[in-house]
Write a structure and sequence with these properties.
Helix content is 78%, strand content 0%. With 457 residues, it is an all-alpha fold. α1 packs parallel to α6, α3 packs antiparallel against α9 and α9 packs parallel to α16. The chain starts with a helix and ends in a 17-residue tail after the last helix.
């Protein structure tokens, strides 16, 4: 049941990509609304993660998990029946917040319910489930949209969550025991407000500024970001100094593996959701592929990802940070191969010309994501592994939201020159970002004899 919850929230982040073109046409959504459908989910997923675990400690982990599944199911239904883009975006924001409740409690429940070898197996299944959900999402979305069951079209990618969510709600009380912390810490509401407003002040103008002509409020919001996020960090330091429980323990930053790992995580994930968005739009609106055919193209990437991610822990144990470096460079090579194919064929030619680039991209992702997570967690104090894992997941979602916003500033203005030109500029920027990631990995600990403890997706 826990795995069903994590499968749903990961799937829903990626499954929407192949439906974006259909959504935009049906709801007459603006380019900004398309960005919000993806980035909004990531933003509201990221912020509550810092405090959601504390809610489970205080009010009961099963209860918070149930509330998260319930809210996710209800918001999925609203997404499925949305009559306009504003309604859909609002429901996606709720979905993201609900996903945070689910995500924060799943690992905590695994830690409480299972011990020893059983816990290790459960965590392995958790990681595998996330990978399978992410890798298969595009194909699942393509099948659902193309099947057009009962004339639902793109709406089915959201409505499919409803029966699964309702089943989870019915079975959770029977299958998952309740648990809570003996001495739950207080949630830092002020800190949550600071980081929430700070991240919103970053993402909101990046998404809305271009369409609104960059009015003064956008620049004021961006200028306030350092003060807001800096204030959050100062408050966390103050709480830790007084012996209270901060949302993010500032002492974690004393570890090079944590600081460098967080920077690398941000660089890596700024290029994930944004890549899937521009690739889906290029395939469908540029090349004219159906959602199903676009989903099938994504399986080239997904297959390479699954193969590489299975090998990544072994390679990371042997080569340490070089696995992340190599993965970043392979990812960059994949983007450059797609760039070359697009320059050659534009929006025409055989789709198989994209296969080498897609395969390299999937392999690079499969190497980077598990290895980076394993290195950071493998060098963390076991007593702080939960906090480190939560920080990595939060930065992952922040990167997804920021990446979509920034790449959107490149992709959508370039559409006046054609989808091929917009895609070329986007993948060139993403390849550059991956070179930055490769450089950042130099600061990671070598961890040559370490062991990967977890996998992110």
């Amino acid at each position: 049941m826990l795995l069903a919850g994590i499968f749903l929230i990961v799937l829903d982040f990626f499954v929407v990509n192949v439906a974006l073109a259909s959504i935009q046409a049906d709801l007459r959504a603006s380019d900004t609304a398309v960005e919000w459908i993806v980035a909004g989910y990531g933003l509201t997923f990221a912020v509550p993660l810092l405090g959601a675990g504390r809610l489970g400690d205080r009010f009961g982990r099963r209860r918070v998990f149930t509330v998260g599944i319930g809210a996710f199911t209800l918001s999925s239904a609203v997404c499925g029946f949305a009559t306009n883009a504003t309604m859909l975006v609002a429901a996606r924001l709720v979905q993201g917040a609900a996903a945070a409740l689910v995500s924060a409690t799943v690992l905590a429940l695994i830690g409480v319910i299972y011990t020893g070898a059983a816990q290790a197996r459960a965590i392995s299944l958790y990681a595998t489930t996330m990978g399978v959900a992410a890798a298969s999402a595009q194909l699942i979305g393509g099948v659902l949209v193309s099947a057009d069951v009962a004339g639902l079209g793109w709406r089915s990618v959201f409505l499919i969550n409803v029966p699964i969510g309702l089943s989870a709600l019915l079975l959770t009380p029977r299958l998952i025991p309740e648990s809570r912390a003996d001495r739950p810490g207080r949630t830092d509401v002020v800190g949550l407000l600071l980081v929430s407003v700070g991240l919103t002040a970053l993402v909101l103008p990046l998404l809305e500024g271009r369409q609104q002509g960059w009015p003064p409020w956008t620049w004021l919001a961006l200028a306030a970001v350092p003060a807001l996020l800096g204030g959050f960090l100062l408050r966390q330091r103050s709480l830790a100094g007084r012996g209270q429980q901060p949302l993010l323990d500032p002492r974690l930053f004393r570890s090079r593996s944590f600081s460098a790992g967080l920077a690398a995580q941000l660089a890596l994930w700024c290029g994930q959701a944004s890549y899937f968005v521009v690739l889906a739009l290029y395939l469908q609106q540029g090349r004219g592929l159906s959602p199903l055919r676009a989903g099938l193209v994504f399986t080239i990437l997904a297959g390479a990802y699954l193969i590489a991610s299975a090998k990544s822990p072994t390679l990371a144990a042997r080569f340490g940070r070089l696995t992340v470096t190599g993965g970043a460079l392979i990812l960059a090579a994949g983007h450059l191969a797609l760039l070359l194919a697009t320059i050659t064929d534009g929006v025409g030619g055989s789709v198989f010309a994209l296969a080498p680039g897609l395969a390299l991209t999937g392999a690079g992702m499969g190497l980077c994501i598990p290895a980076l997570t394993g290195i950071v967690l493998g060098n963390a104090d076991p007593q702080q592994s939960g906090a480190v894992s939560g920080a990595l997941t939060t930065v992952q979602q922040v990167g997804n939201a920021v990446g979509v916003a920034v790449i959107g500033l490149i992709f959508f203005p370039a559409l006046s020159s054609g989808y091929d030109r917009a895609f070329e500029l986007s993948v060139a920027a993403l390849a550059t970002l991956l070179i930055v990631l490769a450089v950042l990995t130099v600061a990671l600990p070598s961890n040559r004899n370490g062991e990967s403890h977890a996998v992110g997706a």
